[in-house]
Amino acid sequence: MLSLDRLRTLYAVSRHGSVSGAAEGLHVTTSAVSQQLAKLERETGQQLLAKNGRGVRLTDAGRLLADHAARILSQVELAQSDLEAQRGQAVGELLMGAFPTAVRGIFPAALSRLRVEHPQLRAGLQEMEPDESVPAVVRGDIDLAVVVDWYNKPLPMPDGLVKAPLLDDPVDVAMPADHPLADRETVDPEEFANDEWISWPKGGFCFDWLMITLRGKGVEPRISHTAREHHTQLALIAAGLGVAVVPRLGRGAVPEGVRVVPVRHHTMRRHVYAVWRQDADRRPSIRAAVDVLREVGKRIGG
Fold first, then answer.
1. Which distant-in-sequence residues (6+ apart) come within 8 Å of 141 by Cβ?
2. pTM across the whole model
3. How many CA atoms lie within 13 A of 195 on its CB side?
4. For the chain (length 302 residues), average pLDDT per consecutive 10?
5. Residue 52, phi then psi, degrees to nearest 5
6. For the chain, where are the E strands, in sequence order?
């Protein structure tokens, strides 16, 4: 009888491409991964891994068994979903991941409601960027992720996932209070062509969006400072160091010395949605969480 834990370990090596990557994804040590794979090789009587430079690769037998493992683990997930659906109650553990402003702007209310409405459900939350949370959902490390993309830059989504829209998040341009455009009711980003910009870190999804959007309007932005958190960006703006595009979700109070002005084009906004594995779609815990997240999202509006 093949062990599900060992099949899961082999599948993780297949997905991550290395023992260390599998260990990180499974939240165990590399030694534990190696031990599980050694036991699986003894059980099957086949060599499943071969050395490849300083790393390893799956043998033909390893790839064959990893393909079967993917299907077996998916069927186990379906079985668990069906059993939970038969009970008709949101119970057990539900692990979720979300990007920082969603953690701050959506989840305090959502987690409180889940605790009241589904007291037997143990909902856990991890702060994760979409490039971390989506693979974590695919791997089964978490059950559901709240992610974000932009009106003109969709987030790539792997096959086998379901998504549900939660809200649209408008953006404003934040600028020092003494900026020449600070008293305007609306602005266009291209009006800041001569300003210094404060952006998300280079190479990230949101940084790429900002560059695509401004260049599409004929602006080559001068990125003087980068910061991951919007609160940090606003602090830099308060010091007179530049302007930034700042979404409203989870923004909180705007510091003194900063003025935020809506962007004239209402299409310039972020899309926030929940994603989960298709084979877990019938789980009442998933449905309960999505329903609550949608209700909270409607109240936030945008």
1. 25, 26, 27, 95
2. 0.73
3. 24
4. 84 86 82 90 90 85 89 78 65 91 95 94 93 87 93 87 94 96 94 95 88 90 92 95 94 94 85 91 89 94 60
5. -140, 90
6. 49-52, 55-58, 92-98, 121-127, 144-150, 161-176, 196-199, 222-226, 244-247, 258-262, 269-277
